[in-house]
């Protein structure tokens, strides 16, 4: 029996071996090569002259964050943060709203479900073309008020140059510290509410230390820049958020609808018997049970938003900095400017950003599987 098991394992390993080898070569070896390239000064001129690239360490990364000429990359990072937050919020909000609507056993549920899921079948290129027409400031949805005898709207959508929540890039360490303090205070309050006194006390102490550090010492400014650089939420991103959210909201709806159909009706009835209103049933019973689905949706949507390229490229043409993203910057830096090292550095930073989102989720899932 043991020999048969070993033979089956050997056969399974041999069947998987070609895939393992190909993944190792075309994923991990290429990632290693890209990482090495990002630590050199490789560029198109060197490639044409067959000169050897020089190893410069983290010079490319330092340049991306502190060189005034690389302000586009820093703007892209800010755009990515705002886009990711709003994109995820829209997809989750619209998705769970549509799922709750369909869960009421409305008439024509199958047709509505198909309609809501249809945008997901389109590519981001098609979505970008359609929404670029709709958001055209001259003849797009800005003309809708004219059908009611009103003047056309003046919002410039994806070519708007207005921005809000403006901050100085040199103050970024302070901003990150304040955001971290807010998270610590939130989790400390939640720990006290749930009567986890030990965790609450530790988080409260950490919050006090952060407050004292910010008040009396604080993180140093990023003084690598000779002049202040001001970035913020470019209102042009609203068009991108709407277009991307329209396409992916049906996906989150499907996830939430599957979760809702998996919740026993007995749990809802028990909550109603205990005096909970319909809103209370969703707040205290349904939504907590949907938390794992929400986490999965956040991970998947965050992964999509961090590497988005085609939708933004189609809508903005690649040169609209107000909706620019790191992936577009990487493409232009590498293939238009011929700066292979800096393009590789941008690619590695994007890889790290995606890994920060994906890896903890994968580790958590592996731990749960091992516990079963």
Q: Domains counted in the coordinates: how many?
A: 1
Poorly predicted runs are: none
Task: Give the strand line-up of the largest sheet.
Answer: 1-2
CATH architecture: Orthogonal Bundle
Biggest pleated sheet:
2 strands, antiparallel
CATH superfamily: MetI-like
SSE succession: HHHHHHEHHEHHHHHHH
CATH topology: MetI-like fold
How far is the first residue's CA from the last residue's CA? Answer: 25 Å
Please indicate the percent range of residues in DSSP E strands (runs of 2 or more).
under 5%
Q: Rough shape?
A: globular
Q: Percent helix among the residues?
A: 55-70%
- Mean pLDDT across the residues is 87
Number of helices: 15
Radius of gyration over alpha carbons? 25 Å
Overall SS class: mainly alpha
Would you write up a description of this structure?
The chain has one domain: Orthogonal Bundle (MetI-like fold). Helix content is 69%, strand content 3%. It has helices spanning 2-38, 44-49, 59-66, 71-102, 109-117, 124-134, 172-193, 197-217, 237-261, 265-273, 278-289, 291-306, 310-316, 326-335, 340-371; strands at 163-168, 230-234. Strands 1-2 form a two-stranded antiparallel ribbon. The longest helix is centred in the N-terminal third of the chain and has 37 residues, at 2-38.
Topology:
Elements: H1 2-38, H2 44-49, H3 59-66, H4 71-102, H5 109-117, H6 124-134, E1 163-168, H7 172-193, H8 197-217, E2 230-234, H9 237-261, H10 265-273, H11 278-289, H12 291-306, H13 310-316, H14 326-335, H15 340-371
Antiparallel strand pairs: 1-2
Helix pairs in contact: 1-15, 4-9, 4-12, 6-9, 6-13, 7-8, 9-12, 10-11, 12-15, 14-15
